[in-house]
Design a protein that fits this description.
By secondary structure, this protein is mainly α. The protein has two domains: 3-94 and 238-252, Multidrug-efflux Transporter Regulator, Chain: A, Domain 2 (Orthogonal Bundle), CATH 1.10.1660; 100-122 and 141-234, Orthogonal Bundle (Multidrug-efflux Transporter Regulator, Chain: A, Domain 2), CATH 1.10.1660.10. It has helices at 3-7, 13-20, 24-33, 51-67, 69-80, 84-116, 146-153, 157-165, 184-198, 203-216, 220-252; strands spanning 10-11, 49-50, 129-130, 136-137, 172-173, 180-181. The strands form three sheets. A two-stranded antiparallel sheet has the order 1-2. Strands 3-4 form a two-stranded antiparallel ribbon. α4 (51-67) runs antiparallel to α5 (69-80) and α4 runs antiparallel to α11 (220-252). The longest helix is centred in the middle third of the chain and has 33 residues, at 84-116.
């Protein structure tokens, strides 16, 4: 019997459950899913858990906040199958994805700042007209049809209709024909929605951003949304760092550590 074997201590399902703050049924589910190492059974059919299973359980629970349920499960299965390169590939992919999200969010923030700082009447404002008596008349803000807006933003008209149905856009309707007309403020809002959707923002959060921009006339709501996402990315990166340390300890402690 190896030194690792002699160091193992038998544990009950309830012991594992208490260590991770889950139910005993969840422990059984983890064992069946391959999240825990193979579990031998007694002659009576009861599972025999030990400290290997506790370490695997705590490693998996540490992986979830950073890598998500599916990836965490795949990592643990790869380790238990003896395929450490696959496990590390999944870890690397998680870090690469997070890095890409950070870059995309930074780019979205810069674009949003530029769009949000544009006042609705500063883009493509037509020249002022004169009345027959020569009196200057205020210029009428340009209005665009839905197809023109879609072409300018590089989206489908169906996307603009979906955003309108969700309450994100509120273009005016032409009397009689009921055609949609987008004024400069509507176009600005559509640009913001497009950028935020590219950053995978959910529609309710975009609604809050637009409401904040309309109420304040400033990009403060946009900055707050971006700061919230960046904080989430930082928290996830921190969780990944902690999980990587635990995974290294579990998978690299020795040839018998995860088998």
């Amino acid at each position: 019997m190896s030194r690792v074997e002699t160091a193992r201590t038998a544990l009950r399902p309830v012991d594992l459950a208490r260590a991770a703050g889950v139910s005993t049924q969840q422990i059984r589910n983890y064992a069946d899913a391959g999240i825990l190492p193979p579990t031998p059974r007694t002659p009576a059919g009861y599972r025999r858990f030990d400290t290997r299973h506790r370490d695997a359980l705590l490693t998996y629970r540490a992986l979830v906040p950073g890598y998500g349920l599916d990836t965490a499960q795949a990592i643990m299965r790869a380790v238990h199958a003896g395929d450490l390169p696959l496990a590390l590939t999944l870890v690397d992919a998680g870090h690469a994805d997070l890095h890409q999200q950070r870059l995309s969010l930074r780019a979205a923030g810069e674009a949003l700042e530029a769009v949000a700082k544009e006042t609705p009447d500063t883009r493509e404002t037509p020249d002022a007209k004169e009345a027959p008596d020569g009196t200057p008349q205020p210029a009428t803000p340009p209005r665009l049809r839905i197809g023109e807006v879609a072409a300018r933003l590089g989206v489908r008209t169906s996307a603009l209709r979906v955003w309108e149905s969700a309450g994100l856009l509120a273009p005016q309707r032409e009397p009689g024909t009921h055609y949609r007309w987008f004024d400069p403020a509507d176009v600005r809002d559509a640009r913001i929605v497009r950028i935020l959707r590219q950053g995978h923002y959910p529609l309710p959060q975009i609604q809050a951003v637009l409401e904040g921009l309309r109420e304040t006339g400033s990009p403060d709501a946009l900055r707050a949304a971006i700061a919230q996402r960046l904080a989430g990315i930082t928290a996830r990166a921190t969780a990944m760092l902690a999980a990587s340390g635990r995974l290294h300890e579990y998978a690299g402690a020795g040839p018998d550590a995860a088998t």
